[in-house]
From TrEMBL:
Superkingdom of source: Bacteria
Species annotation: Plantactinospora solaniradicis
Descriptive protein name: Hsp20/alpha crystallin family protein
SHSP domain boundaries: 21-132
Protein family membership: Belongs to the small heat shock protein (HSP20) family.
Entries under CDD domains matching the protein: ACD_sHsps-like
SUPFAM superfamilies for this protein: HSP20-like chaperones
Coiled-coil parts of chain: none
InterPro entries with a match to the protein in the record: A-crystallin/Hsp20_dom, HSP20-like_chaperone, Small_HSP
Amino acid sequence: MLMRTDPFREIDRIAEQFFGTNTRPAVMHLDAYRDGDFFYAAFDLPGVDPDSIECTVERNVLTVRAERRRPAGDGVELVAAERPMGLFTRQLFLGDTLDTDKLEAGYEAGVLTLRIPVAERAKPRRVEVTVTGSGQRQIKS
């Protein structure tokens, strides 16, 4: 049998009230970065069944939902329960510069990675200036 003495248990209990609980996790950790013409968002979701992951985009709001469940069955006896379980939800507000119609998602090694291309209209482009015979300049794009 596993025995554990934890003098900081009361501090943990108070922190769970503010930051989340085992059944209601407070945070889904995220890294977000841009690499060239793509924006990436990587969410830590270790131990999550890929079938429970749901990504939706409505207007420019990306919502990620995932659920981690405890092992269940007739012979399962819970000895320690420290990993957060339950439904995780995170929302990101995406700028107009991203093409959410071409969003791609992949899940590997407990990490959900979203790849969103930067919209063509947001990419830098060269503006050519031409000179007309009258001395006025015309701008072409």
